[in-house]
Write a structure and sequence with these properties.
With 136 residues, the protein is mostly beta strands. It has 2 helices and 11 strands. The N and C termini lie far apart (31 Å). GO terms for molecular function: carbon-sulfur lyase activity; metal ion binding.
Length: 136
């Protein structure tokens, strides 16, 4: 499925020529603060699997020793999570007419009690996720 999306002001535009419809939800505290809610993410993409126009409007924030997060300097829209030794993860909300299925929930033990997602996704605690992330 091809996706096109942008930040709120339109100065940053993202095109993904081909991507699955699997959505991962991250409930970690950093994502909750950065996105204002859990992070509903598309699958991981290498830098050659998408086109980003308007790079001059992107600010990159080093949020941890292993990752950075990007946002639009003009409107403040959250644009991506970038694992420094991996790929990019884009929020589903940037894209028009997106469809998909939640297949994973990570850092599930950090999920606030006031909502429940209706799905049969695999669920991982923060410890399980970080152990998997740094096992290599």
């Amino acid at each position: 499925m091809k996706l096109s999306g942008s930040c709120l002001c339109g100065k940053v535009q993202i095109t993904i020529p081909d991507i699955s419809q699997e959505i991962t939800v991250c409930h970690c505290h950093m994502c909750q603060k950065f996105f204002g809610s859990p992070f509903l993410s598309l699958q991981e993409l290498a830098s050659d699997q998408f086109t980003l126009k308007g790079e001059e409007s992107v600010h990159r924030y080093s949020s941890s020793p292993w990752a950075e997060r990007g946002f639009c300097k003009n409107c403040g829209s959250s644009l991506f999570y970038h694992a420094l030794e991996g790929g990019y993860f884009f929020p589903a909300g940037l894209f028009e007419k997106i469809t998909g299925t939640i297949t994973e929930e990570i850092c599930y033990d950090n999920k606030p009690d006031f909502y429940q997602l209706n799905n049969n996704a695999k669920k991982f605690t923060e410890e399980e996720f970080l152990t998997h992330l740094f096992k290599e």
